[in-house]
Amino acid sequence: MLSPELGHYALALACVLAAVQGIIPLIGASRRDARLMALAPGLAIGQMIALGVSFLSLIYAAVTDDFSVQNIAENSAVSKPLLYKITGVWGNHEGSILLWALILGLCGAAVAAFGRNLPSALRARVIAVLGLVATGFELFCLTTSDPFARIWPAPMDGQGMNPLLQDPGLAFHPPILYTGYVGFAVPFAFAIAALIEGRVDAAWGRWVRPWAVAAWCFLTCGIAMGSWWSYYVLGWGGYWFWDPVENASLIPWLTGTALIHSAIVVEKREALKIWTVLLAIATFSFSLSGTFLVRSGILNSVHAFANDPARGVFILGLLGVVIGGSLALFAYRAPTLTAGGLFAPISREGALVLNNILLCSLCAVVLTGTMYPPFMSLLFDRTISVGKPFFDATTIPLALPLFIFMGFGPMLPWKRAQLWPVLQKLWLAAIVAALACAVAVFELSGVLAILCAAAALWVIAASVTDLAERTKLFRVPVATSLQRARMLPRAIIGTAIAHAGVGITVLGLAAMSQAQHKIVEVPIGTTEQLAGYDWTLKAVEQEPGPNYTAMVATLEVRHNGRLVTVMHPSKRSFNSQNQTTTDVAIHTNMLADLYGVLGDKHGPDSSPTYVLRLHYNPLAPWMWLGALIMAFGGALSLSDRRMRVGAPQRAKSTPASTSVA
Question: Which of 76, 122, 461, 471 could form a disulfide with 429 if both were Cys (CB 3.0 to 4.6 A apart)?
Answer without folding.
Answer: 461
